[in-house]
Write a structure and sequence with these properties.
single chain; mainly beta; four-stranded antiparallel sheet; 1 helix
Length: about 90
């Protein structure tokens, strides 16, 4: 069975108006927390996800490692869509 992340809570934790960067911290259904770092495109103003960092509160639900891994980068499109829908953009 493939992993399907489900965002249950999302909130904007920082926003820089000068360069258009902002961060959203999301909590997933499996108790994993991630920080999503977005930037706004200059031409269209739409947010683009640049980085996904898993916060080290729970082991990774994919590889079960308790340290840094890049597993959540594979699901950045699903995470970004759910986070923007739930928290909005600044």
């Amino acid at each position: 069975m493939a992993y399907q992340p489900q965002v249950v809570d999302a909130k904007i934790v920082s926003h820089n108006q000068k360069n258009g960067l902002f961060e959203i911290v999301v909590n997933l259904k499996d108790r994993t927390s991630c920080r999503l770092i977005f930037e706004k495109e200059a031409a269209s103003g739409e947010p683009v996800l640049t980085h996904v960092n898993r916060l080290l509160k729970e082991p990774c639900p994919i590889c079960r490692k308790d340290f840094l891994c890049n597993c959540m980068s594979s699901y950045k499109d699903e995470l970004a869509a759910q986070a923007i829908q739930m928290a909005g953009t600044p």
